[in-house]
Design a protein that fits this description.
Beta-Lactamase, Alpha-Beta Plaits, 4 domains, 5-stranded antiparallel beta sheet, 25% strand
Length: 705
């Protein structure tokens, strides 16, 4: 009985041991799985070598377990050289039992070369007489990077705050300064310590305090604002400032307000100065045109119920240019100031005297009878005619005055001033030291002429001239042999002005010299441009006037233009009107001769309408003649045009000159000219004069028959 019991107990003991062994095996396996699948990197160091690492450690570093356990990957290889001494010291202190637990950070190189930041938590244990070190490793690269960026951001903020030349500050909910940069000291004259013991209110000028408090309260409600106010510095000086205020938040809660302030005192003063420059003439201190027009506009509104009209006097000084050129601009300026004073002294207190430009003045006369305005103009003429004492010189000038009266509600500022201006130019042209009252009966042609003459002064500078080109066609082949350059004036008010209207005026005024040079330069440059594009070369025909030919530098001007544009002389032809040849002057003859010597072609325009002597045709060796369009027009009507045209062609050919027919418009004219062996022709039948970019020279020459 006793033996049986013993056997039973032994059996139970063996079973229990077996269960315990299975249980231990299970927990060991479970622990192994947990360690290997843990989201934390784990390691065990035996001395200086790794004796265990889990899978997450391999994933973190990129190395395999074999590389670590076989000693291929050591601590020296893993850690950044600058951090290696720290890592070794912490390991040694645990081995020497100087610390049980350690926590530190270091930089680790991954297998792909990436440098990461890790935090190591380590401890130690004794096993079988050996010291083992084990612990966990966390990737803190994201945290470290974020902290670095945060520190950089803080440094940037401090740099912007303390080094900014503008005043930057913070205030609490009561408006007391809590921080202020050096710019605040510069702006206010108070030290930072003094500012931090006061609110902003004492700095603000009384008239701006309400506005400032309103914007401060808006900032505390989350509403940013930008506004301009004035402050009093500690030394009592006033400064104009531009304030930008916005809420200051901590943990999402508004705890005060930020402020950025720019000192705009210089800007404000500059604006005031600019306003003076905008509305007043800087030399005479009279109203300038802008202010004059504004006052005239206001007078119009006030005078709607007034029976008396509004009047404008336009005053232009005669001979002022002579004073300016002979005595210098300083004397000229002093003279203008004295004239301004005289004008002001001789008008009513309600009148406005303005200076428009140079020696041009205007006087605004609100609500005035016509005769009263005329008497005032006479008084101004007399006042200006009195001698002026300027810098030791006694100067005498006169004034040309134009008077214009408003004619009802349809009148406007621009039209009234323009009428007075037109009347003044009439005076200047036909009277001087007098006045003219503008009326609808005023010579319209003269007014038009005066408008053109005035416009010619600025037409070149304003680039109002354009050039159109009309082809000259070989009547036997249909090919283009030449282009005639024809100037056009795109007047800003009158629109396109025909050359016949403004060329005579430009000759009278002397503007033809500069206009002619520009025309020649433009035409030659265009012909050279066509040549460089690969088109077959042809002549460029440019009209010149008697004034140009008689100018002593004309031939040199032509030579310079050819050199500057690169156009060969043989591709330029100058056209002169038949009437030029009646001018029997040596300068004209020399110019024609010298032009021929340059290799330039010469032609006579409008041939048959003047009294050309055959001797001139031989003397100057003209290359071509142009039959006037009036004879070509008569061809269709079967008048004497056919006979005259045929005679001109025959005569020119006998003198070895080619013939061009102008104004060809239909097939009948063309057929007759071809029969008469006319060499070339131009007219609407072939092409109207067009801008250069509208000529398609790439097309095959058109055959018109």
């Amino acid at each position: 009985m006793k033996i049986k019991t013993t056997n039973t107990n032994m059996t139970l003991s063996i079973a229990a041991q077996k269960d315990e062994a299975e249980k231990n095996s299970f927990y060991k396996e479970m622990f192994e799985v947990m360690i290997q699948n843990s989201p934390v990197s784990m390691y065990i160091l035996d001395g200086w070598a790794f004796s265990f690492i889990n899978q997450h450690f391999c994933t973190l570093t990129g190395y395999t377990e074999e590389e670590f356990l076989a000693g291929k990957m050591t601590i020296e290889d893993l850690f950044h050289p600058d951090d290696l001494s720290i890592v070794k010291e912490r390991i040694k202190s645990r081995v020497d039992n100087r610390e049980d637990l350690s926590r530190y950070r270091a930089r680790v190189y991954k297998k792909d070369g990436e440098l990461i930041h890790v935090e190591i938590h380590g401890t130690r244990m004794e096993r079988n007489g050996k010291t083992l070190l084990f612990g966990t490793v966390f990737d803190v690269t994201g945290e470290v990077t974020a902290n670095l960026k945060l520190e950089e951001s803080k440094e940037r903020f401090k740099s912007l705050f303390y080094n900014n030349p503008d005043a930057i500050f913070t205030m609490d909910l009561e408006g007391v300064f809590t921080d202020a940069n050096p710019g605040c000291e510069t702006l206010t004259g108070y030290s930072t310590k003094e500012l931090l013991e006061m609110s902003f209110a004492p700095l603000i000028v009384s008239e701006d305090l309400t506005t400032t408090l309103q914007h401060f309260n808006e900032a505390l409600q989350g509403i940013p604002a930008s506004y301009e106010i004035s402050i009093n510095r500690r030394d009592g000086k006033r400064r104009n400032i531009e304030v930008t205020s916005f809420p200051m938040k901590q943990a999402g809660k508004i705890t005060g307000a930020y402020g950025i302030v720019k000192d705009i005192t210089d800007k404000v003063e500059h604006q005031k100065l600019m306003e003076e420059l905008v509305f007043f003439d800087s030399l005479t201190k009279l109203s300038n045109r802008k202010l004059f027009e504004d006052r005239l506009r206001q007078v119009f509104k006030l005078s709607e119920t007034n029976e008396k009209p509004v009047a404008v006097l336009f005053v232009d000084l005669d001979r002022f240019k002579f004073i300016n050129d002979s005595l210098g601009h300083h004397a000229g300026d002093e003279f203008l100031k004295t004239v301004s004073k005289r004008l002001t002294e001789n008008v009513r207190k309600t009148d406005t005297v303005g200076r428009f430009a140079g020696d041009e003045f205007a006087v605004l006369l609100p609500s005035i009878a016509e005769q009263e305005a005329i008497e005032l103009a006479k008084r101004l003429n007399q006042a200006i005619a009195e001698p002026f004492e300027i810098m030791g010189h006694s100067l005498s000038v006169s004034a040309s005055i134009g008077i214009a009266f408003s004619n009802g509600t349809e009148e406007n500022v621009d039209s009234l001033i323009k009428k007075a201006d037109t009347a003044m130019y009439y005076t200047k042209k036909y009277g001087k030291n007098n006045y003219t009252v503008y009326s609808e009966e005023l010579d319209r042609k003269t007014a038009y002429k005066l408008t053109l003459e005035k416009g010619l002064k600025t037409a070149m500078a304003n680039q109002e001239f354009i050039v159109h080109y009309q082809p000259i066609t070989d009547l036997s082949t249909g090919e283009i042999r030449a282009m005639e350059a024809l100037i056009r004036w795109k007047h800003p008010e009158l629109g396109m002005v025909p050359p016949d209207n403004f060329i005579p005026i430009s000759e009278e005024s002397g503007h033809i010299v500069s206009i002619g040079k520009w025309m020649l330069q433009t035409a030659c440059a265009q012909n050279k441009a066509w040549q460089e594009l690969g088109y077959p070369p042809f002549k460029m025909c440019v009209n010149i006037s008697t004034i140009q030919l008689q100018h002593p530098n004309f031939v040199e001007t032509v030579k310079t233009v050819l050199e500057e544009t690169g156009l060969e002389a043989r591709w330029l032809e100058l056209e002169v009107t038949e009437s030029i040849l009646m001018e029997d002057t040596k300068v004209l003859k020399d110019s024609l001769t010298n032009l021929k010597e340059l290799g330039i072609s010469l032609s006579i325009d409008d041939f048959g309408t003047g009294y050309t002597s055959l001797s001139y045709l031989r003397q100057f060796s003209f290359d071509r003649v142009k039959i006037d369009r009036s004879f070509v027009a008569d061809i269709t009507q079967d008048l004497n045009g056919k006979t005259i045209t045929s005679t001109i062609i025959s005569l020119a050919h006998k003198l070895n000159m080619q013939v061009i027919a102008e104004g060809i418009e239909d097939e009948t004219q063309l057929s007759f000219l071809k029969e008469e062996k006319c060499d070339e022709g131009q007219g609407y039948y072939f092409s109207r004069p067009l801008p250069a970019n509208m000529h398609d020279l790439s097309k095959t020459p058109k055959k018109y028959w």
